[in-house]
Design brief:
Strand order of the largest sheet: 6-5-4-10-9-8-7
Number of domains: 4
Keywords: Membrane, Transmembrane, Transmembrane helix
Helix content: 40-55%
Transmembrane segments: 12-35, 41-61, 179-202, 232-260, 366-384, 390-408
InterPro entries: UCP026631, YdbS-like_PH
Strand content: 15-25%
Pfam family, one: bPH_2
Protein name: Membrane protein
Length: 519
């Protein structure tokens, strides 16, 4: 076991800068308020300096008291100023090791090393911050020891032996032109949320009371009178211009967010697994071992689906910062997704895949109950509202019935010798694929109506994700459960991750599939 090590000393400077950033808004609020009278600017400066000094002291103490130790079987992190805590994570429990470089740390050549254990959230382990070289060294070491490869010598922890990562084959890359197109489909009005959050600081730096309801009512009345005097044609033109402006703002916001998040998006495949790099300001570098991929999700959007664009995600215990599966191809055609699916040891459904639709009884129940709410609402409207308005909820009932009927066409599932498939959604269809060898449980769930009508929802246990088949006829659900349970019983999960995914998929399970398909 190596000696305990500390993170990069320059982390203390980053902590001091963070304290300064936190002190800016309170200092500005004091400077533009009546607190302190004529000396409020000196008071604001003093508050800022004290905050920086205290923050720097705590940052230095935290750096001194945080150590990490590279052991033969685990990584141990000890931290705490007054009460100490020590956490050890075995290498075999580490799903992924990712490097994240936010804008400020990047200026100093630092990265945050995140050890994803599959526990999620704050339960994952992170070291902030190491140098680029130290971060890459640590990732290589964890990867080698986790996969039971040759041990890496760390006799000198300050200068570890560094093995360069495999360059690998580029499977997918976002060009600037493709990234711009992607951004146009990522319509967002998040800018208005930011402006709304900034309003709370307006009354601190000006005499405007943004929370005065009478102020806004008077302004709207004045503007309404002005608009009313312009005439119907000008009002219509102004409304259209306002909607167009909203669309432009939403598309521009989507482009900016997409560029910041996915600039330089590259997915490579090497002998060690998949490596994804992306980000303009915050650069992330994630490595995903191929045998840790539990399943695939192919999704799309309401508009992009009509243009043939899809997104591919890997389901595993480790997840992205957003708590979602790792996105490996955010904006691609199906012919671009197919090689990635194959490299992960999966295969897309083809003409030989025997799809099964959801129960027609479930379709009928969905249509009836989905429309019943609007039909019931039409009764009081017909009694108490002006004549003819009851047609509005009745029309909504017809639309709901049509939508549920159409959605049933896209609700399908299938199982073959090695994989299970599920598809749902008609505005933006989502398709799930999982290998039977990675399933660890199967559950048949029925509500009161489903029990009476003879269908069920099948939940398949998948590490790091969910896999659901809706509206499966009960007899078919039981046959599917028996088939999957037989696969689970015949699988040695202690050796599953040691076998290549492609080899695992080649193992015959035709008897199980035939039993299910015969029902």
């Amino acid at each position: 076991m190596s000696e305990p090590q500390r993170t990069a000393p320059i982390s203390v400077i980053l902590g001091a800068i963070g304290s300064l950033r936190s002190a800016i808004f309170p200092a500005i609020a004091i400077a533009f308020s009546g607190i302190g009278g004529d000396g409020r600017f000196l008071l604001a400066l003093g508050v800022g300096l004290v905050s920086v000094v205290i923050g720097t002291a705590f940052s230095y103490a935290h750096w001194r008291r945080l150590t990490y130790t590279i052991g033969e079987t685990d990584i141990r992190v000890e931290s705490g100023l007054f009460s100490r805590s020590a956490r050890s994570v075995p290498y075999e429990r580490i799903q992924d090791v990712s490097l994240e470089a936010k804008p400020l740390p990047r200026l100093f050549g630092l990265v945050a090393v995140k050890f994803e254990t599959g526990a999620g959230g704050a339960d994952d382990l992170a070291l902030q911050y190491l140098t680029d070289a130290q971060g890459e060294d640590l990732r290589q070491l964890v990867r080698e020891r986790r996969d039971d490869e040759a041990a890496v010598s760390v006799a000198d922890p300050q200068a570890p032996v560094r093995s360069e990562p495999d360059a690998g084959e580029v499977l997918y890359a976002l060009t600037p032109a493709r990234l711009l197109t992607f951004g146009l489909f990522e319509f967002s009005l998040a800018v208005f949320a930011v402006l709304g959050g900034a309003l709370q600081y307006v009354d601190n730096v000006s005499d405007i009371d943004v929370w005065n309801v009478d102020l806004w009512r008077g302004w709207l009345t004045e503007q309404g009178s002005t608009v009313a005097s312009l005439g119907l044609f000008v009002q219509a033109a102004a409304a259209i211009a306002g909607l167009l402006g909203l669309v432009v703002i939403g598309m521009a916001t989507g482009v900016v967010r997409t560029v910041l998040r996915d600039w330089g998006f590259t997915l490579t495949r090497s002998a060690r697994g998949f490596r994804r790099q992306r980000g303009l300001l915050t650069r992330t570098d994630v490595v995903m071992p191929a045998h840790r991929v539990q399943g695939l999700v192919i999704g799309t959007g309401l508009v992009r689906y009509r243009f043939g664009w899809h997104g591919l995600s890997f389901v595993s215990l480790a997840q992205d910062a957003e708590g979602e599966s790792h996105i490996v191809a955010p904006f691609a055609k199906m012919e671009e997704i197919a090689p990635i699916v194959s490299a992960a040891g999966f295969r897309l459904p083809d003409d030989s895949t025997q799809w099964h639709r959801a129960s027609t009884r479930q379709r009928t129940d969905t249509v009836v109950f989905g429309s019943a709410v609007f039909v019931l609402a039409a009764i009081p409207v017909a009694i108490f509202a002006p004549f003819g308005l009851f047609l509005v909820p009745l029309g909504a009932a017809v639309l709901a019935a049509g939508a549920n009927l159409y959605a049933w066409e896209f609700r399908r599932h299938a199982i073959d010798a090695s994989q299970v498939y599920a598809s749902h959604g008609f505005f933006s269809p989502t398709r799930q694929i999982a290998t039977r060898l990675k399933l660890h449980s199967v559950e048949i769930a029925q509500g009161p109506i489903a029990r009476l009508r003879g269908y069920a929802t099948v939940h398949l246990g998948l590490a790091g994700g969910t896999f659901t088949m809706q509206g499966v006829p009960l007899a078919e659900a039981r046959a599917l459960r028996a088939s999957v349970l037989e696969t689970i019983a015949s699988t040695d999960f202690s050796r599953l991750d040691q076998a290549p995914q492609n080899q695992a998929l080649s193992e015959p399970h035709s008897e199980f599939s035939e039993n299910f398909l015969a029902t």
